[in-house]
């Protein structure tokens, strides 16, 4: 994991999630929007958040060099949310995902962090395309994906989940959004 380099924007530091982030991850995973749009993960203690990080984030980072990242505001070191790249079994392209605590929404942090993440995906990881999945009624997620240059392909599913999701796609060619 030492080969991974955090990255930053004008206002944000974006770095891989660590065990020390477990209390923050616990809070984030139990927000109403997380439960509604991402799903109930039954993570109700710091210990379960630690286990979730070890089981989900660390293997991705070790195998692919990318994972779920914590987004931190430089100004006051406040953890705002997460964004990451996820390589899912049976899927050709990794997908991008994000979540924020409610009081950090609508301030441009999601666009700033995910826009930088896409550039890092191309420059550092050699990725040329990304997917994204969201529920049809998650209007804020859909709006952000479209603002980031993702195009709706149709309906798709994630492994081990039969729920129909909107499947978005983006070629990482920053000359032509």
From TrEMBL:
Entries under PROSITE patterns matching the protein: GNAT
InterPro entries on file: Acyl_CoA_acyltransferase, GNAT_dom, N-acetyltransferase
Domain N-acetyltransferase span(s) in chain numbering: 12-175
Transmembrane segments: none
Coiled-coil features, chain-numbered ranges: none
Pfam families (alphabetical): Acetyltransf_3 (PF13302)
SUPFAM superfamilies (UniProt xref): Acyl-CoA N-acyltransferases (Nat)
Protein name per the record: GNAT family N-acetyltransferase
């Amino acid at each position: 994991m030492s080969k991974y380099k955090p990255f930053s924007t004008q206002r944000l530091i974006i770095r891989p999630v660590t065990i020390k982030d477990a209390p923050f991850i616990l809070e984030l995973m139990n927000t109403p929007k997380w439960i509604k749009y991402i799903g109930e993960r039954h993570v109700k203690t710091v210990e379960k958040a630690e286990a979730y990080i070890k089981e989900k984030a660390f293997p991705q980072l070790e195998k692919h060099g990318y994972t779920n990242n914590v987004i931190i505001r430089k100004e006051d070191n406040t953890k705002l949310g997460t964004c990451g790249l996820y390589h899912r079994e049976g899927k050709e392209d990794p997908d991008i995902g994000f979540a924020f605590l409610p009081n950090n929404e609508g301030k441009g942090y999601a666009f700033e962090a995910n826009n930088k993440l896409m550039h890092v995906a191309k420059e550092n990881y050699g990725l040329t395309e990304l997917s994204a999945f969201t529920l049809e009624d998650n209007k804020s997620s859909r709006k952000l994906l479209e603002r980031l240059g993702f195009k709706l392909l149709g309906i798709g599913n994630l492994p081990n989940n039969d729920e129909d999701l909107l499947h978005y796609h983006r070629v990482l060619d920053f000359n032509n959004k």
